[in-house]
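Example record for the data management plan.
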Amino acid sequence: MVQFNLLPDVKLNFIKTRRQKHTITTISFLMMAVCVGLLLLSFMVANVVQKQILKKADNDIKSRTQTLREVPDINKVLTVQSQLKTLPGLHDKKQVTSRVFGYLTQVTPSQISLNKLSLDYTVSTLSVTGTSPTIDIVRVYADTLKRTTFQIKGAEGSNKAFSEVVLSNFGKSDATGTTFTLTMKFNEQLFNPTNEVTLVVPANAGASQSSIFEEKR
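Corresponding structural encoding:
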């Protein structure tokens, strides 16, 4: 059997175009339906499901808060725990005050007897009061403090340990000899607990009578 296409080409193109248009329209409607469905689903999640989750979380928080409030002395327990957490940091920041006795032992002449010590970390000042057989030994002591340096393990170079060393008070007594008070600034790194400090004391320190009253520049 032989068939002949009797439709003209224009008619065939029209039919083909109409079919493509119908297909595109159908796909567009399907995509719109999917988008509307996703939009409705998002709306449901945001306004229904999420609200339920947040409401449940709020209820859980209120319930557990009430449970904690019923614990005896809970505020004291929390305060102690908070303070315990700060102890390691405070320990790292604290100054090693005990080092001062070792430092003074190294720099103080054997003829001098110290009987009072004042250390102020807020302004980095040190004050020592004592007695000496003569004022000359006190001058040597002051000059030694001025020239003493220190080194930190693992670091290069050295730094002055004490500065602005001044004889702030002195007097003479037949019983004890010379009484004196020396005030000075100290380098705060001397008492840093993270530093391993080595004090370098000059072997032969001496001072003129005037240099003890005012720091050399």
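Summary line stored alongside the record: Residues 45 and 52 are 10 Å apart (CA to CA).
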